[in-house]
Amino acid sequence: MEEENNRTETSIKTSPHRERICKCGCEESFIPKRRDQVYKNSRHANYAYNHGKRKQKTHGQKTAENQLRKNDKILEKYYNFFKKELAIVFSLNLVSDGFNHSFYIGNESKEGFMYSKSYNYLFYEYEKNGRKLTRIIKQKNKVYVKR
Ligand SMILES: [Zn+2]
Q1: By residue range, what is the domain housing residue 116?
Q2: How far away, in angstroms, is 51 Cα from ligand 1 center?
């Protein structure tokens, strides 16, 4: 009995890598053959890859939609504040409200400007005297409203 214990102890100590938990989420433990092995085997690695990718995509889509909705609300706020056909605001103000210029659903050319489309508004960013400004106009034909 004593001998048995010693042998087990020794075999664990001489194993180059410590037992670890598979990263795929199965919670199974294994003794890795390589130092950078994080999955029990290729089947577990594939599972993790497929599920991770899919999850990431869904998360990304949600984030994009949230940002688009947020952008639209911010444009609405500034557009309504100016009470004109056209609102021109410092991009810094939009950004500090959480606006992100790289999220839009399309483009539309108007009065020589290539606007980016939000759900209900069009915006166009340009620079004047070293400061970034954003033109905001309301869309005549709403694509769709998502609230
Ligand atoms: Zn696993």
Answers
A1: 43-138
A2: 12
> What is the 33 CA–ligand 1 centroid distance (Å)?
15
| pLDDT for position 143 | 55
Residue 8 covered by a domain: no
What total of structural domains would you count in the chain? Answer: 1
State in Å: Cα 28 to ligand 1 middle. 6
Helices (H), the chain: 2-14, 42-82, 91-96
Report if pTM > 0.70: no
Q: How confident is the model at residue 55 (pLDDT cuts 50, 70, 90)?
A: low
**Number of alpha carbons in the 13 Å side-chain half-sphere of residue 107:** 7
